[in-house]
Specification:
The chain is α+β, with helices and mostly antiparallel strands and 83 residues long. It is 47% helix and 18% strand. It has a single domain, classed as YefM-like domain (YefM-like fold), CATH 3.40.1620. Strand 2 and strand 3 form a beta hairpin.
Length: 83
């Protein structure tokens, strides 16, 4: 059996019946959408989704920074006035 990674859950039928009420009742928390008592999707508020995307982007940028720090050894120092 799959673990449900949310404190709120609803069936697909409940979601179809009244999605707005379901979101309001969850009070900003993720909702596990169940199909035959198994989680098939998670419904999260738009703000949470946007924050997750920002976190992923920050993480990816951090990886790029760490990779580029390794390249610093082979960098050539340039004076802006000499350009």
């Amino acid at each position: 059996m799959k673990a449900v990674l949310a404190s709120c859950s609803a069936s697909i039928s409940e979601l179809k019946r009244n999605p707005t009420a379901l979101i309001d009742q969850a009070d900003g928390e993720p909702i596990a959408i169940l199909n035959h008592n198994k989680p098939t999707a998670y419904l999260i508020p738009a703000e949470t989704y946007e924050a997750l995307l920002d976190s992923i982007e920050d993480y990816q940028l951090g990886i790029i920074v760490r990779e580029r720090q390794k390249e610093k050894i082979s960098a050539i120092e340039v004076d802006i006035d000499e350009l």
